[in-house]
Specification:
Blueprint: H1 25-36, E1 41-45, E2 54-60, E3 63-69, E4 75-79, E5 98-100, E6 105-107, E7 114-116, E8 121-123, E9 144-148, E10 151-155, H2 163-166, H3 171-174, E11 183-193, H4 197-205, H5 210-213, H6 215-222, E12 226-228, E13 233-239, H7 248-256, E14 270-276, E15 280-284, E16 289-298, E17 301-310, H8 316-346, H9 362-374, H10 388-392
């Protein structure tokens, strides 16, 4: 590998990723190809596609994908693109990404090429006019899948351990939550943000800002956050307790949250967070589980995709606890939006290159080191001249 220059990350000092990597168009393309195509991305929950023919559409990195139940009830994922003229096959119903192929067939709305639930082309108009073409040889490309605690993940080019493998050490701790039995609370929400995806991921792993910027969260969780850094997953957790100034929503949440006797005592007031490399976050609460996925759109655009799941419980106390949870986190999200926009704006300054990590910013450091390991050009503190491809080619 060619040397990437002399102005690299300072030796012996733990430094953040350089600002230019959050804004550089070519670096963003390298991230898409070398990080995201090889990652595992959450799509939905098994309860979202309960019957054969049920599907959930997911677009990722300009790749139209679909997860479905085949005729044997197995979970499969395929390219959602017709092999004839590249038309998108399945849309979802009523402004939703969910739908059902009730007759067990996937029909292209353009030219009526038709596939079964195994992805095989089974019929096509004017079949005899395509000289040399055999429909028996044509099928939708299948995408790798993994299921963890009921949540379905896909990977375009899997080269890292599956989520179910990564999370095996946590299985005993999480199993009392019965996440595999949960159902969606509403629909997937999409929140566009005019920032780089790494700004949002950095903020999610940043424990230092909670006591400064999140006064409500600080009052019940911010004083005892624990962070554990890992290569494939970052782990944060906090036992809730009222301390200092607490807002109405936080105080009421602690009071009305039902005492779930089916959970171990230490889980009944535990808020726990997992960030799967590189961009999928799971927030695990006693009352519900949320996932938040930071989808990269451009160097300065990210789409946050999120939804909540929970066990069926229509008791007044649980419904109120979930509403208060939403109020607390809505405020936190608004505060975080302001913070990440400030940071993204500041990274455009010619006077800023990178900043130091404190010894307890272990998750941030692990994330930055992982990016540098995959894309060594990120070791350069300042943006290099010319094409990054020239720096990435072997000597």
């Amino acid at each position: 590998m060619n040397q990437v220059g002399q102005k690299s990350v300072k030796d012996k000092i733990c430094m953040s990723l350089p600002a230019w990597t959050y804004q550089h168009a070519e670096f963003f393309e390298l991230e898409k190809n070398s990080i995201f195509r090889r990652s595992w991305q959450v799509v939905c929950h098994v309860s979202d596609i309960p019957e054969p023919g049920d599907y959930f559409r997911f677009d990722f990195l300009d790749e139209p994908l679909v997860v479905l139940r085949d005729s044997q009830r197995a979970v499969r994922a395929f390219s959602n693109v017709c092999r004839h003229r590249a038309a998108r096959l399945l849309d979802g119903e009523k402004d939703s990404m969910r739908g059902s192929c009730s007759d067990g067939l996937i029909r292209c709305p353009y030219h009526a090429w038709t596939y079964d639930l195994d992805g095989r082309l089974v019929s096509m108009p004017f079949e005899g006019t395509y000289e040399g073409f055999r429909k028996e040889d044509c099928r939708l490309p299948e995408i790798a899948t993994d299921i963890w605690m009921g949540f379905i993940f896909v990977s375009l080019e899997p080269s890292t351990p599956k989520v179910s493998e990564i999370m095996a050490p946590y299985e005993d701790s999480l199993s009392p939550l019965r996440m595999g039995e949960m159902k969606a609370l509403g629909r997937v929400a999409l929140r566009p943000r005019a920032v780089n995806w790494k700004n949002i991921v950095d903020n999610y792993m940043d424990g230092l800002h909670i006591s400064v910027a999140h006064t409500g969260l600080r009052g019940i969780a911010g004083r005892n956050y624990r962070l554990v850094a890992g290569e494939h997953v970052q782990h944060l957790r906090s036992q809730l307790q009222e301390s200092g100034s607490v807002g109405w929503s936080e105080r009421m949440y602690l009071r009305v949250l039902p005492e779930r006797t089916d959970l171990p005592e230490e889980r009944r007031r535990l808020w726990e967070y997992f960030l799967f490399w590189p961009n999928v976050a799971f927030d695990i609460y006693p009352d519900q589980v949320d996932f938040m996925q930071m989808l990269p759109i451009s160097p300065g655009e990210t789409l946050i995709r999120e939804i909540s799941y929970a066990l069926p419980d229509e008791s007044r106390e649980m419904r109120l606890a979930r509403y208060l949870n939403w109020r607390i986190n809505r405020k936190v999200n608004a505060e975080d939006r302001d913070l990440v926009e400030r940071v993204h704006h500041g990274m455009g300054s010619h006077d800023f290159t990178q900043g130091p990590f404190a010894s307890n910013e272990v998750c941030l450091k692990m994330f930055a080191d992982r990016v540098r390991g995959i894309l060594p050009v990120a070791n350069l503190a300042e943006q290099p001249a010319g094409s990054l491809a020239d720096l990435m080619t072997p000597e």
